[in-house]
Amino acid sequence: MRYRMIVAYDGTEFHGWQKQVHPEHRYLRTIQDVLEKAVVKVMRQPIVLTGASRTDSGVHAQGQVVTFDATNCINPDKLVLGFNSWLPNDVQVRHVDVVHDKFNPINHCTSKGYKYKLAHGCSNPLRKPLFDRRFFAFTAYALNIEKMQEAAEHFLGEHDFAGFTKLNHGRKTTVRRIDQCEVYATDDWRISIDVAGAGFLWNMVRIIAGTLLEVGRGYTNPESVPEIIASCDRRRAGKTMAAQGLSLEWVAFDDQLPNKLAISKKPC
């Protein structure tokens, strides 16, 4: 039978989601490896995990969706308790259920939502993140949120985002659809950038955030964003922002698929 988990993690001490083999055979701590070991302890059989998103090193998650197959049938509520008893403090299984055996968190995903959190005006050191520094990027510039939101609207729709990813991205196409791109203040000198879409390129959200930062500090005009996107030139977009500001918030699926394949956009 196929189980689905909703998993949250602090990505600071991890080398991303996916298990990796270091060229010098040094152990690399990844979320997939740590979580897989905990699941094996409870299920008592070999397990292979499939995650909806391969988050990068240092990136966090509130709603990563993960599946695995197992021959034994265990109450999902008991699995939540069992998995968490074997997990370190920076990973947490928040929900477990049983899904259709054809459910695939990658192929059946219809959209994902990311949040980028940024502290600004940090030329004043008292505005720099302290206790929440693992989850906020920061900039010395005082940002114009209204201009950033004006620019954010230009990302909506389907575009070729070749200029918003690494050169060796390895994807067949760089065309992606953005359904949401919003910038808003969450507190004094704190900003959230919410981006949702059908799929994302490597570092795409962090480069969008970097481009919006350039608008917010007055270096780039909001009206120039369509031209930057159309150029497909990485040099014209903003920098790749730091990983710690980014979190995978939710993953959504097609509710027309077989029973139990749909998940709410904000499951936690």
Provide structural commentary:
The chain has two domains: 2-107, Pseudouridine synthase I, catalytic domain, N-terminal subdomain (Alpha-Beta Plaits), CATH 3.30.70.580; 109-248, Alpha-Beta Plaits. The protein is built from five helices and ten strands, in the order βαββαβββαβββααβ. Strands 1, 2, 3, 4, 5, 6, 7, 8, 9 and 10 form a ten-stranded mixed sheet that branches. The chain is globular, with a radius of gyration of 19 Å. The protein has 268 residues and is α+β, with helices and mostly antiparallel strands. It is 19% helix and 28% strand. The longest helix is centred in the first third of the chain and has 13 residues, at 31-43. Residues 256-268 have low confidence and may be disordered.
The helicity comes to 10-25%
CATH topology of the largest domain, by name, is Alpha-Beta Plaits
Q: What is the CA–CA distance across the termini?
A: 24 Å
Largest sheet: 10 strands, mixed
Number of E strands: 10
Helical stretch tally:
5
Rg measurement, Å: 19 Å
The CATH superfamily name of the largest domain is Pseudouridine synthase I, catalytic domain, C-terminal subdomain
Mean pLDDT level: 92
**Total discrete domains:** 2
Q: What would you say the CATH architecture of the largest domain is?
A: 2-Layer Sandwich
CATH class of the largest domain: Alpha Beta
Unreliable residue runs: 256-268
Judged by helices, strands and strand pairing, the structural class is: alpha+beta
Tell me, briefly, the overall form. Answer: globular
Note the run of SSEs as H and E: EHEEHEEEHEEEHHE
Strand content: 25-35%
